[in-house]
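Q: Hand in one record:
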Amino acid sequence: MRNFCLFIKKTALLFALIFANHVCFSQDNMPIKNSREEVIAVIKKVNGYWQSQNPEHGRAFWDNAAYHTGNMYAYQVTGIEEYKKYSENWAIRNQWKGATSNDKSKWKYASYGESQEHVMFGDWQICFQTYIDLYNLDENKDERKIARAIEVMGYQMSTPNNDYWWWADGLYMVMPVMTKLYKVTGNRLYLEKLYEYFSYANTIMYDHEENLYFRDAKYVYPKHKTINQKKDFWARGVGWTFAALSKVLTDLPENDPHRQEYIDKYKKMAQSIAQCQQPEGYWTRSMLDSKHAPGYETSGTAFFTYGFFWGINNGYLDESEYLPVAAQGWRYLYTIALQSSGLIGYVQPIGERADQHKNVGPNTTSNFGVGAFLLAASELVCYIDNPAKQNLAQSFTPGEIWTDNNGVHINAHGGGIIFNEGKYYWFGEHRPDRGFTTKKGVTCYSSTDLYNWKFESLAMPVEKDENSDITEGCIIERPKVVYNKKTNKFVMFFHSELKGRGYDAARVGIATADNITGPYRFVKTYRPNEGRWPVGMDPRHKKKTHDMKMKWWTPEWTTAVKEGMFTQRDLKTGQMSRDMTVFVDEDGKAYHIYSSEENLTLQIAELSDDYLSHTGKYTRVEPAGHNEAPAIFKRDGKYFMITSGCTGWKPNAARLLVTDNIMGTWKLYPNPCVGTNAELTFNAQGTYILKVEGKDDAFIFMADRWNPKSLSKSSYVWLPIRFRNGLPVLNWEKEWDLSVFDRAETLTSQ
């Protein structure tokens, strides 16, 4: 039996690794693709659908009560008062009771029963979990809410019997009641009886070889077998138990003498359950024999997913080992079990064995299945809310591998960032493993803290049309996105080179989108300012004839470049546009800054009001200075631009240019980098300077550390900009975080 489970485990892990590590841009292939907001939205959709379809409150029997355990957890993570009110109205309808008989001489439990005399039967006791949770929410405690629970459990504990939990479901129904009542009353008898009753259950249902529970004694192997003569562990039955242990350990005191035994049982179960997961993330109804009761099943899968996330969140399970399992479970719940209406499908109906129902489909739902789904989704919210348990970054480590929410190294090179509605969006080049042409397009990632990035989309993919300027095999570099407040459009600019022509096209490309993450609609590529002379160009130089064949780098040639030799050459075709950025000033006016004239001169060009074309007004900056990779920001009325020299993929010393007028004269200053490897810009090349939202005087220099052998493996160097005598300074930081901007003294470089 173990070999079968190991085979399933290897297959599932293989798929998990494919999903986790393959560079794929479909969000469907992400292990945890949802943000907190998205999971909360799912909870609202599912719970809203269920409650709208079930406005009348049913009895306090186990199926309804199991739903309410999930509903109360959903209330805990969302704070939506309607959820609490829904459970409260259900409790009131049932008078805060389970089975209602008051004649203790007739109370029974030994066999299944739905009568009002089955007071000690666990299926009538699970309701106490919700009653206690509601009681705990009271500012002024209403003892009536838990009076029946204390009465029933108190009487039960007074009996000499210990065989109350004779079926696996019962462990979920009542074990958490015992720990919850202990927390309310402080009576340790609840914990003593919890262990006594649980020990009995282990003697009749627990399989020590597989570390799993049979549904009850009727199904113990070899008395009962699957169609393939294997042990028949019913997924929902095991799920009840796994979830029960999670809930018990939540409330069990640290000094309980049996705590470690519960932990060991839980961890062994986790290991066995993980081994039986199917590649699509679900568990078959018969866990060791998928052919015994084939097909999707949601209730067991939801309980398992809840239990795995709970274990990761609370430090009982190793995240690196079990997150793929939990994530795959959630992926099934989110993409297969959840229907468009909010209905949770593929829930095996009420029963007690794996093969009891044949037609479990997308519309097969139930209250307890919805409750289990809500437990899993709510625990996922707790996982997302816990940075330590997600291994979320809380600092920058320049030059190191930087992974996204999929665990894949971020592929957004030559990028820029735009802040929109509380999030940062990082757009960049998707670089291939080999070569330098564009095979995918422009990627988009989002973040709320700048440390942790979620892959959003392939915002502008290359086009299949071989005649398109952005067909696969073209070159797309240094994309930057800005928002136009007048048109309500997001506009993307990029350096464009046509397929098969190397870098001789030297164009700017433009694309637009209604939504920040795209898709961006390609508009055009072109050379800017066709037929226009730059602002302030000497009229004599406009008429001067230059020998275009003169030897480069001679004094005569340098003089000719400064006088505008290449500007004049490209007047009719438009100016060359290579490495570039876009800057939007405080007045909304936008400027295109780019390396032009064979990368010898920077040009700054004014954009039209809709940002979709150039006005024809532009200026030349540092003629013959051989600058590329411009990155610009504004501080205290001054414009600062950090650039690099032109040495291909090899790093060089950064340059600093400063002006009071973006279209005026720029003054060149020495390399702003200081310290070891400053002459190589810390082995990186700048791409963008980011203003940190919500912080004064907070700017980040963004750079790429190129790996020409495999550009996709190029890393990122982000450094805080400090200021000395009003000028930006870059120091190397092995690790840093945004708190550096909260310390005034850091604004002066040491």
Q: What stands out?
A: Residues 1-30, 745-750 have pLDDT under 50 and may be disordered. The CA atoms of residues 5 and 276 lie 5 Å apart.
